[in-house]
Amino acid sequence: MSTVAFITGGNRGIGLETARQLGKEGVIPVIGSRDAEAGRQAVAELQAEGIPADFIVFEASSTADRDAAYAYFSDKYGRLDVLVNNAGLGLEGQPAESIGRADATSGVSEETLRQTFEANFFGVVLLTQKLLPLLKKSQAGRIVNVSSVLGSLTLHSDPEASIYPIKMFAYDTSKTALNAFTVHLAHELKDTTIKVNSAHPGWVQTRLGGSVAPLTEADGAKTSVQLATVGADGPTGQLHHLGQVLPW
Question: What burial letters (b/e) apply to 79-113, b meaning 16+ CB within 10 Å?
Fold first, then answer.
């Protein structure tokens, strides 16, 4: 019985690479894409590589789309084995642009805060709550919340840390909240076979990371894939990057 994974925002970037790498490990990747044509193109690309991928139209803020996702996995598979909450956004530019910005925190608008939290936190929490009954039907459910080291309060408070001067208030705090969700849900599920972890992809060459980032999208997917396929003795309730535990 093949493992089934749902990767939100999986039609491009790190999400698509996550689907590809999971597919190469024998997992059936189902992509969540806001745009149907983009989803079809991504699936065609993966299928051309021999990966039996599928997609559903999915917008994390849509109650109807969350209900439809539940119905899809319930009707087709009767369960869900892996949920990779990959979809998210950043509205404050690239990280380096925040360095030295005088109003990087006080000047963030309510609209930016609400849109960022809707995508990076509320959408993730509500989808996970919706699909949790299906994950509980898996023999070994895995939940991966794609977060960021920029959500680490420990490192943001350390003048010696490399991220210390980077302050994107809406994005950073949305990832801090997401990390708190990881900790709380992992605790709730600690006596089950489900593992819940946050993944820091690294500084990746994406729309958010920019072209000067040192890691490729394929590199950025590796941590999510590692956590999605971790064994029974693997971690839960942690923030990881390529096997390394990062501080909250």
Answer: bbbbbbbbbbbbbbebbeebeeeeebeeebeeebb
**What's the N-to-C CA distance of the chain in angstroms?**
36
| Domain positions in the chain | 4-246
Which residue do the tokens 């302050």 mark? 167
Rounded Cα distance between 22 and 11, Å, is: 14
Q: Which two tokens stand for residue 33?
A: 């894409």
Map residue 65 onto helix, strand or coil.
helix
Q: What is the pLDDT of residues 73-115, one digit of tens each?
A: 999 999 999 999 999 999 998 888 888 898 999 999 999 999 9
> Is 72 among the catalytic positions?
no
Question: Of the listed 70, 77, 164, 171, which one is catalytic?
Answer: 171
Q: pLDDT of 47-62, one tens digit each? A: 999 999 999 999 989 9
Report the pLDDT value the prediction gives residue 205, as an integer from 0 to 100. 64
What's the half-sphere exposure (Cβ side, CA atoms, 13 Å) at 130? 23
3.40.50.720, 3.90.230.10, 3.40.50.2000, 3.30.470.20: CATH of 4-246: 3.40.50.720
Whether this prediction's pTM lies above 0.70 is answered by: yes
The residue whose two tokens read 């040192």 is: 214
